[in-house]
C-alpha cells in the first residue's frame, strides 16, 4: 500500500540584505594602486564595492541582514541560526551565537559554517538538514563576510575584487514541490588544492608569522578560473539531474559573484542563455559567502526573480569547495 511522503523540506520564506555604507569605487582604488577603472571592469566586471569601516564587524553586518530577513518572513519561528562566514569576529568563539543574541532570538541553536565563497550553499544544505531531521522548524541562515579585512591593501590582484556585505534567508519546514522548497544538493571539495586560495597564518598550523603577507589572503587567479568554471558546471549538471530538471528548465542562474567572466564562462559551458544570469557584482564585488543571498535579494527587489521561476544556485570557493542546489522561487519581498 503506498505511503504518503511526510518528510519536511526547507522552504525559503524571507530574505534580507545589508551592505556597509562606505563605497569604494575603481577610481579611488586607482589613486593608490597600479590599476584603472577600465582594467578592473574588463577583468572582473566590478565597478565598486562596499567596505567595512574600522570597528564594524561580520556580526554587525549579519545582524542587519538577519533583521531584514526576519522582517520579510513575518512571524516565522526561529529555532536555529546558521552563519556562513570565513571572517568571524574572533577565532574563538563562533560568531553565530552573538548574531542570535543581537537579534533577540534567545537560546536558539547557533553555529558557524566556513566554506568561504561556497559557504552559503554549504550552510543552506546544513540548514535544510536541520529541518529534514526535525531538529528545527525555522532556521535563519546568514552569509556574511568582511573579506576586505583579510587583504593586503597594496595587493592589486585581490583588493579590486573583494567587498564586504551580508545576505540572509529565513527557512521553514514545508513540503517538497511548493514554491520556495530548496534542494536537492550537490557538494564537493578538494583539499589537495587548498593553497590556490589561502590565508596561511592565523590558525593552528601557523598561529603567527613574521611575514605580514602570511596573514593576508592570496590566490592563483588563472588556476582558480579554470577550476571554478569546470566545477560549477559539473555540479550544476549533477544537481539538475537529481532534481529531474534539464538546462532548458532553468529560468535564472545565480552563481557566486566572484568574477563576471567566471559567471559567463560557466553559463556558456552549461548552455544557459546570457539573459538567465543574475549578476550584481558590478556594485558589490566578490562578497564571499554573502554573494548569492545578496544577488537573490537584489533580483527579488527589482523583479528579475518572479514567483515560480526555476532557479539554479552554484558556488565555488577556497578549500577547495563547491556545490549547487535548486529551488522554485517563492512570493517573497526583501525586508
Structure description:
The protein is built from 9 helices and 13 strands. It has about 325 residues and is of the alpha/beta class. The chain folds into 2 domains: about 10-175, Peroxisomal Thiolase, Chain A, domain 1, CATH 3.40.47.10; about 180-330, Peroxisomal Thiolase, Chain A, domain 1 (3-Layer(aba) Sandwich). The chain has a 5-stranded mixed beta sheet, sandwiched between helices. It has a 4-stranded mixed beta sheet with strand order 8-13-12-11, with helices on both faces. It has a two-stranded antiparallel ribbon with strand order 2-3. Strand 4 (about 80-85), helix 4 (about 95-100) and strand 5 form a beta-alpha-beta unit. The longest helix has 23 residues, at about 220-245. Its EC number is 2.3.1.180. It is found in: Cytoplasm. Belongs to the thiolase-like superfamily. FabH family. GO terms for molecular function: 3-oxoacyl-[acyl-carrier-protein] synthase activity; beta-ketoacyl-acyl-carrier-protein synthase III activity.
Amino acid at each position: 500500500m503506498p505511503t504518503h511522503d511526510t518528510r519536511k523540506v526547507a522552504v525559503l520564506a524571507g530574505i534580507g540584505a545589508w551592505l556597509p555604507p562606505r563605497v569604494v569605487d575603481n577610481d579611488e582604488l586607482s589613486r593608490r594602486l597600479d590599476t584603472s577603472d577600465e582594467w578592473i571592469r574588463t577583468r572582473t566586471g566590478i565597478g565598486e564595492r562596499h567596505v567595512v569601516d574600522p570597528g564594524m564587524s561580520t556580526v554587525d553586518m549579519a545582524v542587519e541582514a538577519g533583521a531584514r530577513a526576519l522582517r520579510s518572513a513575518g512571524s516565522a519561528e526561529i529555532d536555529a541560526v546558521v552563519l556562513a562566514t570565513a571572517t568571524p569576529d574572533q577565532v574563538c568563539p563562533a560568531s553565530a551565537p552573538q548574531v542570535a543574541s543581537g537579534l533577540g532570538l534567545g537560546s536558539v541553536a547557533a553555529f558557524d559554517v566556513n566554506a568561504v565563497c561556497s559557504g552559503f550553499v554549504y550552510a543552506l544544505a546544513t540548514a535544510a538538514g536541520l529541518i529534514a531531521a526535525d531538529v528545527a522548524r525555522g532556521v535563519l541562515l546568514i552569509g556574511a563576510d568582511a573579506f576586505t579585512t583579510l587583504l593586503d591593501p597594496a595587493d592589486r590582484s585581490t583588493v579590486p575584487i573583494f567587498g564586504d556585505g551580508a545576505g540572509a534567508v529565513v527557512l521553514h519546514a514545508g513540503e517538497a514541490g511548493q514554491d520556495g522548497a530548496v534542494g536537492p544538493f550537490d557538494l564537493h571539495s578538494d583539499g589537495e588544492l587548498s593553497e590556490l586560495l589561502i590565508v596561511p597564518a592565523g590558525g593552528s598550523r601557523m598561529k603567527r608569522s613574521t611575514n605580514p603577507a602570511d596573514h593576508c589572503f592570496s590566490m592563483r587567479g588563472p588556476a582558480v578560473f579554470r577550476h571554478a568554471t569546470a566545477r560549477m558546471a559539473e555540479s550544476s549538471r549533477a544537481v539538475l539531474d537529481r532534481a529531474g530538471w534539464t538546462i532548458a528548465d532553468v529560468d535564472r542562474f545565480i552563481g557566486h559573484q566572484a568574477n563576471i567572466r567566471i559567471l559567463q564562462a560557466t553559463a556558456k559551458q552549461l548552455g544557459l542563455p546570457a539573459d538567465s544570469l543574475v549578476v550584481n557584482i558590478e556594485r558589490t564585488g566578490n562578497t564571499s559567502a554573502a554573494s548569492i543571498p545578496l544577488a537573490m535579494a537584489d533580483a527579488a527587489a527589482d523583479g528579475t526573480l518572479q514567483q515560480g521561476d526555476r532557479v539554479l544556485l552554484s558556488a565555488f570557493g577556497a578549500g577547495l569547495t563547491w556545490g549547487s542546489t535548486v529551488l522554485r522561487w517563492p512570493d517573497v519581498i526583501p525586508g
